[in-house]
Amino acid sequence: MYDLATRRYALTLLGTDRSLNSVSRETGISRSALRAWQHRIEPLPRLNQTACSAPADSAAYAYLLGLYLGDGCISPHPRGGHYLRIVCADAWPGLIEQCRAAILAVRPTDKASVLQREGCVAVTSYGRHWTCLFPQHGPGKKHERRIALEGWQQEIVDAHPWEFIRGLIHSDGCRITNWTTRVVGGVKKRYEYPRYFFTNKSDDIRKLCTDTLTKVGVQWTVLARGSDPFNVSVARKESVALMDAHIGPKY
Q: Strand pairing partners for 231?
């Protein structure tokens, strides 16, 4: 038996003109089952979002949602269920532990393992509800498809905006120190100032970030990388201080 999320994902793949053989190899689902799902007359029953995916800890979920939108993916297991993977750089052991703790807080009955890769780790958890918890999953890259929050997700983000921003910054953001020089009294002096960046190719994900920053009173600007506006910058002193109070640098 396969859960609804697995069936929906397989049908999504078939809807992109993939062959039965190709989808069967990727998902581990037999061609006969895929063919039967394609020709169902009755629709799949509507998923009860509240019963299926209510996170055990909404603050931890807001943080994990930010991590997922930045560096996360969901992939099907051949025997049903899905893997959630959040990729974290080796340079930030504190981030790796926070990611693992968030997964366990959101789904206390699941497990979270750390799989070492070259220069990074994949914090991984298997479960049958990850596609319910993150309905933004789907084939292809996030910046090549529409990303929008469900109503229940937006309610959680509105209740825990700083946790959501922290997840975004911890995945695709950073706190750096910029510097410049000025001539004062004929002497060139160096001045340093902190700055936050969030960088993501998805227009939708950047807007989720900037909308939430605006709600908590953080002033931001968008800086282009070449002709592409990939970077959200927070540089004003008062806004950086607000970010420092709630986010801080990765560690």
A: 199, 223
